[in-house]
Amino acid sequence: MVQALADKTAVVTGSTSGIGLAIARRLALGGANVVLNGLGTDDEIRAAVKSVSENASGEVKFNDADMRDPKAIGDLIRSVESDYECVDILVNNAGIQHVSPIDEFPPERWDAIIAINLSSVFHAVRLAVPGMKRSGWGRVINIASAHALVASPYKTAYVAAKHGVAGLTKTVALEVASHGITVNAIAPGYVDTPLVEQQLDDAAKSHGKSRDEIFEEVVLAAQPTGRLVEQQDIAELAFYLCGDAAASMTGTILPIDGGWTAK
Ligand code: NAD
């Protein structure tokens, strides 16, 4: 059987762990060549490449571009274009977080979050779109957040960046719609990742509460389903957006948040 994404090449930024790694595995399973990216030790990167390669029929590569650096993002897109003609599928997923009241928010954390969570999306998209236009087909999937739609206190930079990603998604979708290119954002709620587990553990420690109490106050209060979103659910939605059935979906911000933003 011909795989849905055979002959397509996907770049997934921030795919050495968490949601990006789950998306990379799903696109590889669908037949795409996949270029991984992200931070990590040599062992972590080897493990990520191995886990994506296990179910891949295309090639799996790794590029170490630092998403804070526009030049490195340019080198990443150029190297993929020299290997495969163009980036067919661009998943902008790399992201970081910092939680702090506005009057204590370190300016360098603001700069880093805006650079990685927002400006990197602008640079990767502006550089990948010409190749997609040449081939007459493309998929851009931006991993935003429920925080692209609603705010929470103490997350100024993250909420600003993710709202920015929502605006960028809609704007570029309008510009490239007639070229066979769709641009969408996925807006997850709390997802079952090591990052969230760590945040729950840290919050429990700093508030002198049990992990279960923090889970109830943070996750259950936000998500009426009463559970974390699974990484695989995000990966399946990303895979769907790459398919022909999603050709008319563009400019959307798709919540997958256990009902959080319906309230
Ligand atoms: P994660 O920490 O597991 O993954 C983040 C990835 O980004 C890693 O691969 C990391 O190496 C990479 N990264 C960080 N800084 C980088 C840099 N300078 N250059 C290149 N790569 C860099 O986190 P995750 O939870 O899987 O988050 C992935 C995306 O999903 C982020 O954009 C995040 O905002 C978004 N998101 C996560 C959740 C959640 O609950 N986990 C909810 C909503 C949105």
* Helix/strand order, N-terminal first: EHEHEHEHEHEHHHE
Structural class: alpha/beta
Shape: globular
Question: How far apart are the first and last residues' alpha carbons, in Å?
Answer: 43 Å
Strand order, biggest sheet?
3-2-1-4-5-6-7
Number of separate strands: 7
Low-confidence stretches at least 5 residues in length (pLDDT < 50)?
none
Percentage beta strand: 5-15%
Indicate the radius of gyration in whole angstroms: 18 Å
Put simply, the count of helices is: 8
Q: What's the main sheet like?
A: 7 strands, parallel
Q: Ions, cofactors, ligands: which are bound?
A: nicotinamide-adenine-dinucleotide
Mean pLDDT over all positions: 96
Helix content percent band: 40-55%
Task: Give the key terms.
binds nicotinamide-adenine-dinucleotide; single chain
Q: How do you describe this structure in short?
A:
By secondary structure, this protein is α/β, with parallel strands linked by helices. It contains eight helices and seven strands, in the order E-H-E-H-E-H-E-H-E-H-E-H-H-H-E. Helix 5 links the parallel strand 5 and strand 6.
Topology:
Layout: E1 9-12, H1 18-29, E2 33-37, H2 42-53, E3 60-63, H3 70-84, E4 89-92, H4 107-135, E5 138-143, H5 156-176, E6 181-188, H6 194-207, H7 211-222, H8 231-242, E7 253-256
Parallel strand pairs: 1-2, 1-4, 2-3, 4-5, 5-6, 6-7
This protein binds nicotinamide-adenine-dinucleotide (NAD).
